Amino acid sequence: MTNILAFSETRLGELRRAGLETVTAARRVADATGGQVHAVLAGGPGIAQHAAKLAAHGADVVLVLEHDAFANYNPEALTAVLAARLGSGYRAAFFAASALGHDLVARVAARMKLAYASDVTEFAFSADSVAVAHPGYTNKIVQRFVLKANPALISLRAGAVLPAENAKAGAVEALAPVGDPTATRVKVTLTEKAAGGKIDLGEAPVIIAGGRGLKEAANFKLVEDLAAAFGNAAVGATRAVTDDGWRPHSDQIGQTGRLVSPDLYVACGISGAIQHLAGMRTSKTIVAINKDKEAPIFKAADYGIVGDVMDVLPALTEAVKQARAGA
Amino acid sequence: MKLAVCIKRVPDMEGRFKIAASGTGIDEAGLKYDMSDFDGYAAEVAIQITEKAGAGEVTVISLGPDVVQETLRKALSMGAHRAVQLKHDAPVSDGFAVATALAAELKDGGYDLILCGRMAVDTQNRSTGVFIAELLGLPIITAISQLSVDGGVVKARRELEGAYELIECPLPAVVTIDEGIARARYPSLKGIMAAKKKPLDVKPAQLGAITYQLEKMELPAERAAGRIVGEGKDAVPELVRLLKEEAKVL
Amino acid sequence: MTASNGLFALIVAVAAGFFAYNVQRLVGFLRIGRLDDSRWDHVPRRLFNLITIGIFQRKIFRDAIAGPMHAAIFWGFCVLTVGTGEFIARGIMPGFTLAHFMPMWVYRFYQNNQDLWGALVIAAVAFALFRRLTHRVKRLQGAETHANDPLLILSWIGALMVTMFLAEAFEMVAFPEHATPFYRPLSFAFANLVSFVPHDAAAVIRSASWWSHGLLVLGFLNYLPYSKHLHVVASLPNVYLSNTSGPGQAGVMKYMDLEADVEQFGAKDVEHLSWKSLMDGFACTECGRCTAVCPANITGKMLSPRKIIVNVRERLEQRAPELLMADGRGQRVETTLLDGFITEQELWACTTCRACVQECPVSIDHVSVILEMRRNLVLGESRFPEEVTPAFESMEQRGSPWAFDPGDRGKWSDGMNIPTMAELAARGETADILYFVGCMGSFDDRAKKTTVAFAKIMQAAGVNFAILGREEKCNGDPARRMGNEYLYQMLAKENVETLARYNVRTIVTACPHCMHQLGNEYPQFGGNYDVIHHSTFIEHLMAQGRVPLRHDLHEAVSTFTYHDSCYLGRYNQIYDAPRQTLKRALPVVNLVEMPRSGDRGLCCGAGGGRMWMEESEGKRINAERADEALATGAQAVAVACPFCMTMLHDSISSRSESVKVYDIAEVVAERLG
Ligand SMILES: Cc1cc2nc3c(=O)[nH]c(=O)nc-3n(C[C@H](O)[C@H](O)[C@H](O)COP(=O)(O)OP(=O)(O)OC[C@H]3O[C@@H](n4cnc5c(N)ncnc54)[C@H](O)[C@@H]3O)c2cc1C
Ligand SMILES: Cc1cc2nc3c(=O)[nH]c(=O)nc-3n(C[C@H](O)[C@H](O)[C@H](O)COP(=O)(O)OP(=O)(O)OC[C@H]3O[C@@H](n4cnc5c(N)ncnc54)[C@H](O)[C@@H]3O)c2cc1C
Ligand code: SF4
Ligand code: SF4
Fold first, then answer.
1. Size of interface A-C (CB pairs under 8 A)
2. CA of C355 relative to ligand 3 center, distance in Å
């Protein structure tokens, strides 16, 4: 009962970074409490190739579920497999707090009639319980719970544990579907990357926004480069910018534009007028870059750099690229 | 079509929260309450379905003390047809216990589609809808950003990180609603007047057993607002470190 | 009495009867409208309006060209109508003359004037026709106008005059013994010109002219009810019945009983408007003065206040018969004033600046119609620009149109040692004056500077004041002007309650919208206060010598221009105080005026809730105003309203690096000794 299960999320045959985070977290717990890490790798034919990577991040065993029926996310069939497996005795199971992870952990918990902890940022295991922290109230409050259920089901917020290598044997074991995995009620008929790599402002977890401080339309390239470095970022603008036609009106953020609340909002050369703030104040983390240290945007920002966007943006783009590559 | 929407009453997220003396809840003094955002979208979606069909009924359900009636009235003023309060005065932090009570009410209602929010914007557990589906033995699709119901089949779209997927399942079913699907309408005064005359039943909540207990609420480590990391491009490494380690967004 | 007298009497009777029928029919139309506050009070004030605006054409003269022209026609008409009366009476009873009813010298004077005004009218009509045909005056154009109607009317008037002179002159030729050369000098001169005509022929021409004149007069009378020139009849009553509540009160929106009135909130069709708004439709002359000054129209939006009024009349003439004929004989047209005639887009473009009302020579109130229709859109149909929703929700949830924590409302005063009313009450104290800061002044970074400046001035002058801090709520003006009366009343009632708790009597504020609400509209909820705008208050303190100013400062700016806020100016008639404040603070600085200033000031574009709506149609109003301000060559623009501040700051900063916008309080505070 001391083994830890880690569900490693895949998409379209690729292993996701979140899949390494769950394995790393499980490894950390197993190292402290004794026990093995069993990583679950599910997907269509060929998915097994990722087993080695999981081993490198600390999986003692990689449970591979390779089957046509799992090429797309198959929530009901996966729930059946995982509930059965976990019923055989695990101390805990880690899922990613992603769109799919949230779906799956809740289903498994529901099937097993267990409480679970969602979107966890901190966890501490003790003999018969796990203390977890989970942000609520749009990140304004940390809720601390004690999870007494066994196994403890946890979905882990992205970045709460960074992937770290810690190679283990990673013995590959096949995992069989429970029943007919195609005979499910809920079917995912298509999975597709967001069109053209352009992420909608409303959904982007990161937004890089530019204001009049960029001086001219051509300089928006700097903003676009930073967005590209993040990979999951969209570009926004102030009305001063959309008015001047540097960006289309659809990019305008604020009172009379889009209302957004990404995880990270980087305001470049934006003064922070009330009409702009009205559209982005609820962003979880706000970074401001402005050459005027009195600019009101700094009052709304969590982190600020006083400086010229022309210098700061290229440096930041470089640093973000490196940080993303290192991960 | 009969639709049900589960609605949670939550405090206004713009306020600055204080922890109550008990340490397990927020200090409610001076807070305004409203429908959880996603539940507002869910109610809107349900109402639009009946409006388009020119038939059907939307029932809104909320579990909580008598003040939730105000939230239910708002849903009625948007256009829902009737409301049910599952009365329970003390806070519960166990999603399963809440879902058990909601499922008990939903069970014999003959609903074709049950809608919940993707998550409650206060406690953010994201569990209730899935638990209800399991308790009722119904298929569920979570966190959807598009929905169509046609010929007994629900078709939906879910946004993933940088991707999306299309999902379908047969009715009756449960769905949980993400943003982007519809904005909750602003009730007209006509709607508000009409809502006063719509039925609102109050029933005792039949909570399930509690296995998950909130120990403590605390405010996150204060990040001084307007913290200047430094000047010019030399400040970039420190900013990146903070984004990675403190804000955890990199 | 001859046969021809009898025939004429019959024609007059038919014409008068038909006219009377039309008048009672149109007056009957007004019955479908809603009740309005008494329009029969304030008799002296109403008579005063009737005389100055109606008879003396005060507003007509605001246009330097059309003013005298119209006045000539109007006054001519007044004088000639008496003559027409005599003319008709004489047509029925030969030998009738007014001379029997007055001393002879008065009669001679009257005769003299008939000739004189007849000539003036001919000249004015000729000029008007010339102007219409050759100049295409911009304000007279527009799809909603009836372009041929004025041409017909002007020609008709011209024909009336010509036939009058012809009849008069040929009478003199045919019956020289009737000639009164000295008293009808122009007719006599004309008669001399045509004296070669034999007497018989002259008698025939006289007779023909006489009949033409008579028939033209009666025809004109009966054409009026079908023409925009109904204003000839309707404008004087309309001026008499116009809103007389005076400065501050005239722009007040009507109270709406939200509990009682559940069938229809606001106006979707003409029958939901007040009878006075319907009458406005009859009084409109399509002169276009309103549209010519409308900031929305000037900058290329669809909204035209004239069209709103013209549409009201058009729809009224369609709808009233439907409603008034109980047996449904009226032909039903499936449409409504909203959508069928006036679109949502037009209604949302209005900034409620009241420039149109100010300018209308017959005292029409366009804004009431627009706002009643907005009420229907929001309360009845929940139709409004989608970007407004967060503002509504935030006002409801947090008492401010922007989603800020209400707890931060008093934050600007940190470290300034300004007490809140609650703090004073806790100590058993109170303050003389409440400073109502408002949402902009509390949360907007630019406006907060004004707030701080005004507070510093009051502190320096030793004023004993306090603020409400987190207990203050939005005054509700944006909600009310956007048609959300429900939300507005919620906020107003809460504020009235809070103010009652502290027994507040005197309030100062730097926001004209707060001032207008608290001072002029809150009495509807039992809140009666003495509300003073900061421009008046600072000027008053300065006049008393209570503001210590330094005079050793080098002025960075040498020319200022001042932008009038609509809610301060046209709503509350405060034009001087802010200018005086500037002059006192900056004795050596030059104050230049924009072409559109004072009661002709152009709106900044933020009023009427426009502050929360996107402006994508045409040119931005604040851009238009910024261009005008910059064209004066001023180095700084002064404002006295936080909304004007945002709008002008926004547009000027994108046009000029050097010209800055200041609130008058900032200018004074800068110089505090
Ligand atoms: C009715 C209405 C609706 C509005 N709606 C919106 C809306 O929806 N969204 C919106 O954004 N705005 C809106 N606005 C406009 C808003 O008031 C501001 O004017 C606008 O947000 C300002 O944009 P900005 O910050 O890009 O420009 P500015 O205010 O001009 O700020 C530029 C900033 O860049 C800084 N800067 C300059 N050069 C550099 C440099 N080299 N490096 C670093 N920093 C530099 C300056 O210090 C300054 O702080 C609205 C206004 C009105 C009146
Ligand atoms: C009176 C009362 C006080 C509470 N106080 C606290 C507290 O102090 N701390 C705390 O952590 N939790 C509190 N809870 C809430 C409880 O934790 C949650 O209801 C439960 O954990 C479900 O998780 P969630 O609210 O995060 O909703 P999620 O699992 O995120 O699900 C969201 C969806 O489920 C539905 N739903 C959730 N709750 C309700 C409800 N009550 N009625 C109808 N539909 C609902 C809605 O559709 C909602 O969008 C309280 C609940 C009640 C009734
Ligand atoms: S109030 Fe101002 S904006 Fe509105 S119609 Fe009249 S002139 Fe135009
Ligand atoms: S409303 Fe008044 S100003 Fe406008 S066109 Fe009619 S008469 Fe002229």
1. 39
2. 6
